[in-house]
Amino acid sequence: MSDASTHSIVAPHGLGIAPHAPAAFDSPDAQDAQDAHDVRNRGVPFDAAWIDGLRVNHAAVERRTATLAARRSVKKDAQAAWLLKAVTCIDLTTLNGDDTEGRVRRLCAKARRPVRADLVEALGLAPDAIATGAVCVYHRFVAAAADALAGAGIPVAAVSTGFPAGLNPHRLKLEEIAASVADGAAEIDIVVTREHILTGNWRALYDEVRDFRAACGAAHLKAILATGDIRTLANVAKASMVCMMAGADFIKTSTGKEGVNATLDVSLVMVRMIREFRERTGARVGFKPAGGVSSAKSVLAYQVLMKEELGRDWLEPSLFRIGASSLLADIERQLEHHVTGRYSAFNRHPVA
């Protein structure tokens, strides 16, 4: 796609993307190493000029997302390969009021071997070749999940900072992050204060996320924008940029609890901001759609979006995650159809 069409969707003041700026918290050596996946986004000082004048062309967004499925048809062996890759990017999630330690441990067992053994064998893979990207739980179950996943190389992600509303006192939010990290969480999915976005208080949003990033320590921070609550695509663009400026390792669409969660439209705006942030700083930031990505067909559209907008590296779990639970069952059904030519009932593909 041409630069002109790129800027017709999301553009800062004037035409095109502003000149590159260095990532102030990176040494030159670290900046040169940003292409390595294990180098984190260290953030940059707050600069309102990065967000002033950001506008989003809704019609152009809709035209772009409408072409994703139509222009890219993934079938047969290629589809099976893409779906297996999608499994490795799933943050297998349980965030229900009736969660128990037993349920969480079953979910962790599924995360270790998410695809039925007979399907894995039929696809010519080793029994332990596929695992999910992470297991995502409330703080209460972090220690149990970390124990259940010991030695598997699968990180525990904890939702935090008063998830899903994010209205706890700031001090308690920081304490919750620290407690989850102490219990074994390697990733923290934080919710931002929506009021900061809705009132345009971008410095307050930056300071909040910067504090969360510091509290995470070595754990990676995923910033949830709650896109269904913040009303406009322009707000989505600005909030995405501010969270990345503050040091977010991932930006995430939703809690899964809003009335509207992940959509291709908000995702396109967010990944365009990831692309612009990389052009400005060299830093790679990951993306996580969450809520509503429940079918194999829908996840393929998100994978095509990542591939076309950001490149092959954003199909890997280091830079792409999907917050989901029921998605896994539909992927298994599609893989069974690929192997046997028949679809099976959902109850043959339990998530946990």
TrEMBL record:
Transmembrane segments: none annotated. Pathway: Carbohydrate degradation; 2-deoxy-D-ribose 1-phosphate degradation; D-glyceraldehyde 3-phosphate and acetaldehyde from 2-deoxy-alpha-D-ribose 1-phosphate: step 2/2. GO terms for cellular component: cytoplasm. It is an enzyme of class 4 (lyase). It holds the Pfam family DeoC. Its EC number is 4.1.2.4. The keyword Endoplasmic reticulum does not apply. GO terms for biological process: carbohydrate catabolic process; deoxyribonucleotide catabolic process. The keyword Nucleus does not apply. GO terms for molecular function: deoxyribose-phosphate aldolase activity. Keywords: Lyase, Schiff base. It catalyses: 2-deoxy-D-ribose 5-phosphate = D-glyceraldehyde 3-phosphate + acetaldehyde. Belongs to the DeoC/FbaB aldolase family. DeoC type 2 subfamily. This is Deoxyribose-phosphate aldolase. It comes from Trinickia dinghuensis.
